[in-house]
Write the structure tokens for this entry.
Amino acid sequence: MSREVKTLYVAEAEDGIRLDRWFRRRWPHLSHVQVQKMARSGQIRVDGSRVKPEDRLTAGAAVRVPPIPDPVEKTPGERQTLSDRDVAYARSLVLFEDDMVIALNKPAGLAVQGGTKTTKHVDRLLSAWGEGLERPRLVHRLDRDTSGVLLLGKGPEAAKRLAGAFARRQAKKTYWAIVMGAPKPGAGQIDLALKKSGINDFEIMRPADPKEHGAEPAETAFATISRAAHRASWMALRPFTGRTHQLRAHMKAMGHPILGDPKYGNEASNELSGPLKLQLHARRIELDHPGGGKLIVEAPLSPEMKAGFAHFGFSEDEAEQDPFAGVKRIR
């Protein structure tokens, strides 16, 4: 058992996760009873306060982690292994890799984390790089149907630094989206609190009063890159917060839902979308590299986004280097 008491920070990808699940993702050998006992005795604290195993964590929260008992070593037959095909597939997604960071080009349709009905996901594929300390760690997330850049930390220290950058809003994320209509003004920022409603596959984010219980602040900058007359617009979106479905919910609230979105679309956007899949792509991430210097990664357009560009006549060379230059309240 490690005798060290640690303070770890909740990553953006883990915003809203239950405390007991947060612990078991990091230490799968811990039982629910063990986590419950540590929480009840006050050994686990969040931002200095006592917590219950079922309490949900927010991105950036400081978690006091007491000494964790060592796992009981499993036999080789008990370890979950990936097939050679899965390993090759995981490696094929790499956009950038060094000794501290991996950047993947996540395809649309591949979940980042697993669930009761999801067995193929990015988190499982990370075993392609090894287990234990060799296994990369997720530091943020993308929706299942959103394509683009997904960063991973190699080792606990790199993951901690990357997750901290996301939690402190130091990562500049630029998404490309095709939305219905032509937003007016064509650029600006939307500050609109969001609250989760429903459960599981029926979960949706809706606008809420900031004082409403469960409401979370959400901020998104937007800038129009090009327009297909008044039918559709190619937008650059930059979230300053990391709420579930934030960009999709904000664009719907503006009256310009992202095309190909079955959850946040309306009758008009669904008709305009036709056969198009979700037109949302994590194009670029810029932040401090955990080893020093800047890390800038761009993901090429996904097949789904290429179909949208072709349908509306957009061309990548229309995008300026910084689509947010001059946009008010960009920080």
Notes: The longest helix spans residues 156-167. Residues 257 and 266 are 8 Å apart (CA to CA).
